[in-house]
Amino acid sequence: MSTRTRFAIATGAAGALGALAVAATRTGRNVGTQIGGIPDGDRLTRMQRSRQWRDGRFRNRDRRAGDTPAADSIGARDVARRFLIERPQRGPNAPVPLASEGVELPTEGLHFSWLGHASVLVSLGGERLLFDPVWSERCSPSPHVGPRRLHAIPCDLSDLPPLRAVVISHDHYDHLDMETIRSIHELQPVCEFVVPLGVGAHLERWGVEPRNTIELDWDECHRVGSIELTAVACQHFSGRGLHRNNTLWSSWAARSPAGSVYFSGDTGYFSGFEELRDAYGPFDVAFMAIGMYDPAWRAMHLNPEEAVQAGLELGAGLLAPIHWCTFALAPHAWSDPPERFVTAAEEAGVAYVIPLVGQPVAVAEPPRTKPWWRP
Ligand SMILES: [Zn+2]
What we know:
7-stranded mixed sheet
């Protein structure tokens, strides 16, 4: 493993990707486009009116959470120690099995297909949303450096059915991928991109038509077809390069006559989940981030037990884990998130499903989970 990769792990996933961006810039590679745009003009004025904006940047509601993962040297040393001394197995022992059914989901009811990491295709009565699509080989500003995929993509972007909207949780590289966004915009020119405040600046820089981009603050809603999409509160941070927290981070609620969905994006455990249930739930299915946690950045990422607890507070009928398997961005072992999640979900008596990557799931009749991640 390269020194740079070790450094990446030691400094924390997203912070490291920002560091990579800076390092790549210093070595002369033009990564400016990957880093994205800087909000200004009317976009910035709207951001400044947000309740989430304080003293020149977006902030978490709970001030104790801070605005970045543990950036202090003790936190970073701690992560490095866990990685270097405990030496967890950060990748799969065998090739990750992929489902071969394809991504055509039935047009009646609520169905989904988890496409790796935080990428999820959801069909609500045949109207499709795609959350946080990342198809690139690496989640990084550089094609040569940075965390690499641990399994193949489950389908080509050109195989995706027509999408109502691509929904983005925040601008970190493992959730917002420039190449993927550009390709979808080219392949599906009427597809809308629904994003948190400020993220539109990146899309604009990448050539997405402004009329295709909808930017929302928390508790703001946009209708696509019969789906009501609402950006909802979470606890995290943002940034693709030198700028931190000048775009908003968000979880999402999607409701239609066919069902209701919660998508966590990246969030730490915070006090707002019951409030979200009361305002936008109950949810038929909640996509919960269960991986890339570490004690050093606990405020910013749920661990598996917290994901189950948050799912209970959200009143979700079914929990579907995301944010593990595809990229190794934290020191924990590759299979720890599903193992810990299953134990916690069984103890709590909540319904859950961990499908294969690419496997279509009917939310009303989820398949029994087989531990396919075990060697
Ligand atoms: Zn993130």
